[in-house]
């Protein structure tokens, strides 16, 4: 086999969510990938990707008992979702700033099935690396499943780093 | 959450096997992790880990029809196994040399269930990163399962990079 000369990393996608572990993964990436690349005159762009659940998957106009949610409830949920996005992105931005690394950061917010959105975004951007925490992606039931990162590892074409928070190791 | 100051990578384990993809993963690691760390005055030790199947799991003294294998057959298999180890390690060493990076390389050969040996070695060494190809680990039936890397991603405590050979992307 010819050893291929693999290019330097130009675009790194970090999937962030509400979990402490995803912020740890971002921090790990900044300290161990971005910082060394940066000091090596390579300045990758860091894409912070947050996927919010699409409304139909998490709440519909009908609740479990078949009653129609009032518009006020739906509005509240949408408002909550917006605040969640802002909160996660602010936290991620704070982690980036604390790293004291002068990097280009892009923020992207997707909606829908996390693994589909993450893998689709990575492919669309032609990313050189995907970084995410090992446990679940996101809020509600997604946290309990903990399989999004493994699904992504199977599907994504670029190298993927799965980072585990020390508190979550078995 | 306090952003933790994560240390530099000192020990990187790369699980190698007979597959082209594992050599690609090694090459990726050299080009994208070791090289930048090295130029950043950090010189990690690269541990090349090969796990050979333990004899009882792949051939026993009895074949499928219940006949005892002759000692000559068992000896042939053991000889083949030794040659396989040498071949994989030589190839991996060649990939390292071609990278023109002056790194410290250690070779380790384990025996048994790949995921157990890989995760156990990573833990025992206190490795800072595990790198392996996405498709299967190793020869024979292990190649077809393709799940060792995902099992390791679930179990290993340190960050793990799953690298896919461009030819293997879906």
TrEMBL record, chains A, B:
Residues 9-164 form the UspA domain. This is Universal stress protein PHOS32. It holds the Pfam family Usp. CDD domains: USP_At3g01520-like (cd23659). It comes from the Eukaryota.
